[in-house]
Amino acid sequence: MRKKEATILIVDDDDDILFSARISLKKYFTTIITENNPKKIHNHLTKNTIDVALLDMNYRIGFEDGKEGLYWLKQIKEINPETTVILMTAFGSVNLAVEAIKQGATDFILKPWNTEKLYGVVNAGIELARSKRKNTQLATIQKQQDKDFHQQTEHIIGNSLSMQSAIKLVHKVAPTDANVLILGENGTGKYVFAKEIHLQSKRKNNPFIHVDLGSLNENLFESELFGYVKGAFTDAQKDTLGRFELAKGGTIFLDEIGNLPLHLQSKLLTVIQNRKITRLGEGKEREIDARIICATNAPIHKMVEEQNFRQDLLFRINTIELTLPPLRERKEDISLLANHFLKKLSQKYRKRALEFTADALSAMKDYHWPGNIREIEHLVERAVIISDNEKIETSDLHFSTKKAAVDSVANLNIEETEKTLIQQAMQKHQGNISRAAKDLGLTRAALYRRLEKHQL
Q1: Distance from C-alpha of 195 to C-alpha of 335, rounded to nearest angstrom
Q2: CB contact at 8 A, 165 and 333
Q3: Strand order in the sheet with 29-35
Q4: pLDDT tens digit string along 178-188?
Q5: Is the per-residue pLDDT at 352 higher than 90?
Q6: What residues contact residue 3 under an 8 Å CB cut-off, 6+ apart?
Q7: What's the chain's average pLDDT?
């Protein structure tokens, strides 16, 4: 039998007990550390990642009150909370073991033990330790993400009436738990507004989980969103939390919900209606506590009319509907955004104070901005990088030469029609090959061939 990768620490003042426990466990686990002096526990915990500590309750002759065991239990939990502590005790001390469990121990085993029983208790302790360690890592990652999230939140910028109206709605809806649907073209700031709603809510100190449904493989939908238990499928090696559970107490942002196929829409609807999820491979329902914000650039109301999106799901997700205007409809905000990104990116690239010429600002106001705010940021970034002067000229601004997408194809030539459709798909998805190919009903390889064929 292959040994399981694990580190077990056994602490007892009786060398015979240490020898017996080592012999019993070494054929199952890779690393067994024995120690007869509890004062050295600290050294072992700091030098090794201990999965399980088997801890005796008494170390001084004549003392059977277990106070030393409780003391060292507390020390272990303070040094490494993820380590599973299993107590070793005599039959007469069961009540003491129960008290220790109340103080943080996981289980106890009676001396003398049955080898199979000892293996089972230790093996379960290893799995528990790894689960705790994983949860700690997730919490650390989430904490860092939350820190970055707060630091990197882009300001919502705009003095136009449409933007002021959107900002006012955010202030009203954020303190509630109402489901919000954010509509708008690519690059209009849907993610930024979702973050702002979260930051102004009572859930702001809890996770903000972003799920891009547009790039999520259909086969992974349930496992990613709802989680799974060990053995649910071939590669399910351990229980795993889904995005809804990771968002506990916080907000889950379901981006590009318009891309969700009908058969998956029904599964999402059930979760939103019942506020419960069931992990793959498990029959138990688990309650969810997450505010739901959705977003899409698709014409979702038209999709409902065409029966490509469930009307009942739309009713569930758009308690409040927030529509973000495209940049071309709020030209008065272009200078504000351009100068905001200029300041930010000048600092990023350590450039001296730069400014736009009047002609450059005028050119930006006249441009149609198919990529909206995302495009203006990228355009300013390129200008900052290539500019050799203190002023950014119109010549430093590399506007896209692509035409705005048209509603229908006027040319009936097959080759030209194919080229036009590919151009529209690439523009719609901001150059994302995977999404454009999916929209066109092509594979990535087939789309690459056509891009080369049409010299796009």
Answers
A1: 24
A2: no
A3: 29-35, 4-11, 52-56, 84-89, 107-110
A4: 999 999 999 99
A5: no
A6: 27, 28, 29, 30
A7: 86
